[in-house]
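Changelog excerpt: complex records now keep ligands as SMILES alongside chain sequences, and the structure block spans every component. Example after the change:
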Amino acid sequence: MKTKIIYFSRTGHSKRIAEKIGLQIQATVYELKDNMVWTGFAGLLRALKSIRAQNDIVIQYDSSILDCDYLIVLSPIWGGQEVPSIKAFLSKIEHPNMSLVVINMGSDISIPIENAERNYPNIKSVYGITRKLKNEDTIINHLLNDKRDVYH
Ligand SMILES: Cc1cc2nc3c(=O)[nH]c(=O)nc-3n(C[C@H](O)[C@H](O)[C@H](O)COP(=O)(O)O)c2cc1C
């Protein structure tokens, strides 16, 4: 069973978590890139604006990423939603065995989880990590234990 991981990260938390999961299960980790500059103060303003405005985002990824048995997608939460590039990715691709991990700072993560379950019915499971709750390792364990037959 080949597992791949794809993430977007503006400030590095989702990247670190993606790499942590990747190390635990020896999965290749990819960054989802796009045509926007999200860094710095201008990037933060752009990120805040993207919550309300539909933006013309162009995502860049190698389609070979879909060549796996299980795909784990990680997204920070911006204004209660996945970031624009992950939304575009999930709307565009199809994969029969996919999980989504959303990562936020402190707001109620059950709302974005429920929204993602509704918006992307083809995703098997949605997991939420809230940094303020320091539940990262617990949620990673849930994610990997749900696939215990594969990884243990
Ligand atoms: C534009 C923007 C909006 C955000 N909205 C929320 C939010 O609604 N709820 C929350 O708990 N955290 C929110 N955050 C915090 C991020 O979800 C959190 O810091 C996340 O871990 C960032 O991931 P990254 O370091 O991989 O970019 C927001 C951050 C940004 C930049």
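Residues 9-15, 44, 47-48, 76-80, 103-107, 131 surround flavin mononucleotide (CB under 6 Å). The mean pLDDT is 95.
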